[in-house]
Amino acid sequence: MKFAANMLSCIMLALPAAALAQDSPSAQGDVSVTIYNNNLALVQDVRTLPIARGVNRIEFPDVSAQIRPETVSFAADGTAIVEQNFDFDLLSPSKLMEKAVGQVVTIVRTNPATGAETREQAKVLAVNGGTVLQIGNRIEVLRDDGLPVRVVFDKVPPNLRPRPTLSVTVESSQAGSRPASLRYLTPGLGWSADYVALFDAKAGRIDVQGWITLTNSTGTTYANARTLLVAGEVGGSTQNYGSPYGRPRSPGPLRKAGTETADRERLGDFYLYPLAARTTIADRQTKQVSFLDVQGVPAKAGYEYRNDWLNSSETPQSFSSVVKFSTSGNGGLGDALPAGTVRFYMKDASGAPQFIGENAVGHTPMGSELVLATGEAFDVKVQPVVEKREKLGEYRWRTTMRYDISNAKPEAVNVDLTQAGLDWVNSDTRIVSESQPSKRRNSDSTVWAVAVPANGRTTVNAVFDTRY
Amino acid sequence: MRLILASLLFALPAAAQAQAIVTSAGPETSSVTVYRDPDRGEGGISASFPTGFALITETRRINLPAGESIVRFEGVADGMIAVSAVITGLPGGVAQKNRDARLLSPAALLDGSLGNRVHLRRTSRATGKITDQDAIIRSGPDGAVVLQTSEGVEALRCSGIPESLSYDSVPAGLAARPTLSVTTVSPSATSALVTLTYLSTGFDWSANYVAKVAKNGRTLDLFAWLTVTNGNASGFADAQLMAVAGRVNKESDYDSLIENAPSSSLNLQCWPMATTSTDSPPPPPPPMRAPMMMADMSEIVVTAQRRNESLAAAPVMKMAKQEELGDLKLYRVPMLVDVNAHGQKQVALLQKTAVPFHLYYAAKLWPLDPSDESQPMTKTLRMQNRANAGLGLPLPSGGVALFEQAEAESLLLANSDMRDHAIGEDAEIDAGRSAQVRIRHVGVAGKDGTIQSFRIEVTNALDKPAPVEVQLSRPDGYSLVGPSRKLGEKDGAWLWAQTVPANGKAEFTYRLKEEDR
Question: Fewer Cβ in 10 A, N or C end of chain A?
């Protein structure tokens, strides 16, 4: 039996792991969280509260530590709100002493030689830099001699709290426990998407997994919460559609906005991503849940370079390596994509996936065409050179450009070479001649689709007339 | 007896609820692919603060029970970017991935125990007597600790008596280190080989070239190290090490993706403590000791020593193997190596002997703005990156140390940087300024005092001929007329190339004509 006792103590030692699982019960009730992309969430918390008839003051612990108290709304049957308070006068030793001014506290002196304790009553006269006490008819400064003195207060002063506390005062027409719903907005909860894209350049295919990434830095854990993610930013920002003097922008990854509707839950213009099961969103947690898994979507590798001005480069510049694919239901991913980061992987010679770069996508409708740059090509480069710049008149110039393109890869590549800056300071630019026809994408830029032979070079020549 | 034990053991899983927690302590095999910081320049790397990143792939053997379980991955790099983690090989797939950054710390212990019973222990300095009493924490951890005991309300450690708190248990959800865990539902109990792939900050790599000019002065031996730095506190034993050359696009700020734990330090403050003799706040705590590294660094002693042997290093046994990875270049170290925590490792990257090069002296001038000052020209070594010119392999960017053999010694000629060079490009090494080959750009005044023409003079104080290449940028609206020699073209600029005789001079004159149309 002694042996059994030993075994028992062993098991007792093992128990702290079980003790870990025990949590001090949260005061939260049935929690639902709706999270927007721009670091904002709507929390609804339905708690069953005993409310007496008449005026009640109800405190709500375990709300978000970053709660925006002005957005709180409270609802419970048979109650009317008298007032809402958000108190952030926090308890600390200084506050404790300051609130004790004029009151009597107990001081306990310890004799450094014998350890004997003597107790005295003292009145706190003032707390300014140090603490001045009246003991009997003497006036003393607390711990002026540096010897140990404990100060014992009778109680915690009212309205001093360990944490900011939300309270609602209600007038209730009836007594009894009932569900009370609390709704508020809080920053500190946000989400975005993370995509893992495995690109097979030879087969021209891409496998995409989408993950919803949810982050909680509110300082509060939301236990067993129903969670809904809204793909969109709400309020607050105005879109900049370009300004009168703004330079035409280079096209982003979204080359053609889609016109298809994805088969997902929607709220107005927003797509909704509900989590399948209730989940606990712990404080300081990054949580990821899968929402998309598509195999074998057609995708193409490409090369793009944009020369922003009619200028020379001192060294050859790498083309961007891009991956092109569609989000259409017909030959594409077949879904709308919430904004996030796409990380591309490619298999190396041993078959292990290696990271080849990442790019960001905005909220992308289904049916869109995406061109995402993953990095710069080591082997495919271009050197733009101004061969000649002649003055034709007071404001007219003629620029002769040459673009030397090199390809050190053992296979031929097709590159898109863009000359931009044709319509900003230079206006009404005209292409006088070019070695191969280009496509004028807009007044500011023109694009040559150039075939570059394997381990070879090619040159594009063009002459521009500009007014300046 | 056995019955008691059995019932206890059976009682435990109920406490842990339906989810079993499976901990994977470390990887069986790992591979580390290091990427350069794409925003860094061309040169070498900082060993103490690497700014690039790495893709880490680990295989782990995990014993899964049937049903839902939480798999915790321990021993991952501390720079792990949790959102990039990909886990394959779990038979039930991954339902959810979590990264928890709430760590067990003095402040978290206090915060998690708010309103709970703790134990306050006081020790008498005079007698050593310990008094223990129960207390309830009434304040949060931000300011300081206010306790309620049976005697009343007190503040922790304001009395001058040694006081400390002890706790009954660790609050839930606190871990020793940030931890990645995944939820999976396994159809049956099984042992699974799981692959965990993630990006991590705190790595970087660079090529470090050592170029040795042969005695004949016409060829050089080029050798490069692949230098990898791991600034993480985690090491990877027996790892497959790879490095990727080229520039990958990086959109997110990786440092901000690493969820930081809330401040873990506990800052105890008391009420105002000024006394009649000090009207100032109490003295600050003694400053923290200087970090160990600083102390270590100051002990490095450099001893000057004349080396007699040349820099001919020991022959290289193993050389990194280059593969294509899309439009990037992958270098694979051909054996398993230990990538140590806070360590730098060097492996041979490439080697080419007797590479012919062309030595010349370079300068770039703005034709309208003569400086009239004699300036040193830049000594430059040009190699053609082609197989028939002795090279013909991708040259990833990095630092270059250029040595020349003089008598029995190797002399360092220059220490510079080189960009990425594809096959077929001209690779140039900046070999430093030459005080012997100098250039002067003069504006020559005409009768009316205005500049009529320009003259470039190159002087050579060496006892051998010096080839020079002078680039003149093209100014808009001017044409160059009457050059004293025919000009070439390079990178969109006019090029004057000529060989200046030993101990001699060369001159070039030109005029600029403004286009007045």
Answer: N
- What's the whole-model pTM score? 0.83
In B26-173 the beta strands, taken as DSSP E runs, fall at 29-35, 52-64, 67-73, 80-88, 96-100, 117-123, 130-137, 146-148, 153-155, 163-166
Within-domain flag for B8? no
* pLDDT score for B290: 38
What top-level class would CATH report for the domain A26-88+161-187? mainly beta
Q: Does B169 touch chain A (CB under 8 A)?
A: yes
Show the domain range for B369: 358-381+429-514
Q: Give the minimum alpha-carbon distance from A198 to chain B in angstroms, rounded to a whole number.
A: 11
Q: How far apart are CA B467 and CA B445, in angstroms?
A: 29
Residue B435 within any structural domain of the chain: yes
Instruction: In whole angstroms, give the CA distance from residue A204 to residue A300.
Output: 5
- Whether A152 and B151 lie within 8 Å, measured CB to CB: yes
CATH number at residue B441: 2.60.40.1180
Which whole-number Å values give the CA distances from A364 to A36, A108, A332, A368, B422, in the listed order?
Answer: 16, 69, 13, 7, 36
Whether chain A has a CB inside 8 Å of the CB on B253: the answer is: no
Mean pLDDT calculated for residue range B295-305: 40
Domain count, chain B: 2
Q: Would you report the helix, strand and coil content of chain B in percent, each value rounded to 5?
A: 5, 50, 45
- Answer with the one of B166, B183, B199 that is the final residue of a domain: B166
Question: Chain B 432-471, CB below 8 Å of chain A: which residues?
Answer: none
Instruction: Report domain extents, chain A.
Output: 26-88+161-187, 93-152, 190-234+247-467
Task: Please say if the pLDDT value at position B305 is more than 80.
Answer: no
Token readout for B322 is: 């280059």
**Residue B24 domain flag:** no
pLDDT at B169: 84
Does a structural domain hold residue B291?
A: no
